[in-house]
From TrEMBL:
Family to which this protein belongs: Belongs to the FliD family.
A Gene Ontology term for the protein's cellular component: bacterial-type flagellum hook
PANTHER family: FLAGELLAR CAP/ASSEMBLY PROTEIN FLID (PTHR30288), FLAGELLAR HOOK-ASSOCIATED PROTEIN 2 (PTHR30288:SF0)
Complex formation: Homopentamer.
Organism lineage string: unclassified sequences, metagenomes, ecological metagenomes
One GO biological process term: cell adhesion
Membrane spanning residue stretches: none
Domain Flagellar hook-associated protein 2 C-terminal: residue ranges: 243-406, 580-647
Organism: hydrothermal vent metagenome
Chain ranges of the Flagellar hook-associated protein 2 N-terminal domain: 11-107
Protein name, per record: Filament cap protein
Keyword tags: Bacterial flagellum, Cell projection, Cilium, Coiled coil, Flagellum
Amino acid sequence: MADISSLGIGSGIDVNSLVTDILEAERKPTQTRLDLKEAEFQAQLSSYGTLKGALSAFQTTTSSLRFPSSLLQVNASSTDDDAFSMTTVSNAKESAFTFEVSTLAKANSVSSATFANISDTIGTGTLTFNFGTTSYNAGVYDTFTKDAERAGSDVVITDGSLEGIRDAVNTAKIGVTASIINVGSDGFKLLFTSDKLGVNNSMEITVADDLTDNVDMSGLSQLAYNIADTENPAVNMAETTQGQDATVKFNGLTVTRESNTINDLVAGVIFTLKLPSASGAADVSLTRDSSEMGNLVDTFITGYNDLVDTLNTLTTFVPEGDSGALLGDAATRGVVNQLRAALNEAIPNIGGDYRNLSSVGITTDRDGKLVKDETKFDAAVKAAPNAVARLFSVGGEASGTNLTYVASTSRTQSGIFGIDISQPATRAVYTATANSTLVVDATNKDFTVKINGTTSSTISLTEATYADGDALAAEVQALINADSGLKNAGASVAVIYNVDRLEITSNKYGKESTLEIVAGSADLGFAEGTTEDGKDLAGTINGVSAVGDGRFLTGTGNADGLLLEYTGSAGGAVGGVTFSRGYADKLFNLMSEFLKSTSSISGKTDGIQSSIKDIGEQRVALEARILTIEARMRKQFGAMDALVATLRSTGDFLTQQLENLPKIGG
């Protein structure tokens, strides 16, 4: 077969151009159809992307209104901003009171003697830090009372320089910060500061010096600060700051705290103390910020209207122009219909006069957009702020003593749910046998306890003759709760003396609450005591069995995900919970449905992407067919060209022969 460059030489026909034109005519109808279809699919895909972006943006807007705390914001104001500041959180309530800062909490600090260089050697050995309360007589360090619930901490010193001691204490992370202070021309001092503020977090430092004497002013004993040590008392460091509690007056009542941040005095209010009050008690007001609810609702309306604008643009019909790419699309029409239905439905189970948007002055205009009547809305917020908040947010309200609504999930349905308790939550209780003595000595002081699955170290009671059973119980409780392993596991107990025996109760509720005396003396009743493990809360919500965990109950069925806490000890019908989903929550969840991978929108985009891929495959098939046609045509034109060349050669030969014939009459 003639190659492409020589094709047509025999016939004199421009076969290459002829083939190209024929192939282009063959390709163009199919290619044009595929181009138009792909452009249509790409426009739809882009429009679905725009729609998803608008739905996601509106979901973000609704999220800030889903919780009552966002809508029912309370602001705190004071006549003295210099002495203290306040921050309010979700459970703050409107109120008024007086508040005065008397003293700030301070951390206990002690300093060493002066050293010429930070590399100077003090000594090696072990520093033991205890924490508790320091007492003073005429301003002089007099006694120290150790905190029984806070274990002491040992720091082994192998590098005896100021730097080495500082680094060892800080690395140990025992609740003390060590610093080296340049005091000027005299040199450097080592400063120990308790990490916790307050009177009860003062320090006592005892020394086990690698030298023989633990109290003199040589070696590591230079850092001793332990007047309460009856065997080796030494006050070789100087107290630079006494531990001090913060003292405030709340409505004239004196209150003390170990910190300058107080979050347990007024519900929902965090006080940060800055200075002692210079002008006496300040007036404090906690007032509802109704403007914040209005601002959030305005944001909700704007977000919804932006979504409506996007939907209108994507579905608009233009008689003589470009209509929206999603005009007539079933998935988009479904979004519009479900949005309208969600806004038109009243919110059940919230009671009162405010159960739909129109009741608080929010209506739709002819374009489907929301419009707010400011006067009507403000009047509703002023009259019933909680009801208006529930109109938008998700939440529950419990009725009944000791019953609290905690949380819900997207699966929880609106409703009024009755709560019936068949088994109140209990804690593990270990009851010792009757103890024969209140005298604790080396023969009976040690015991080991296992609480909620965590085993303590060996606990050693203080050797003493206890005044009564209550004093012994207090000692047992303090030492158990001071055990570091139990503390790290969050395990603690309460101990009482019941008639003639110790009774230990885990502070954890539920089936994971367990207690066991692993080892202990029969003298104290620890050899053959009995244990009753804790039990989870059990009961029903609207007659359907719920799942108990400690003092919490989680619903199933219509109440799926509804989480309640019951702290009572009585069983039976204990109250109920009214649960509702406001507009913001309903629309947030609706947006989630629209955006999930199994939604009709996702199905549409998946289908379009599949169609675009199919168009690509059709293009490949088209090109393969064109190549086949081209090969066939070139083969046919090549044969024709050869035939024409042969005929032309024969013609030329005949012409030559005819010209050589004798001419008649010549």
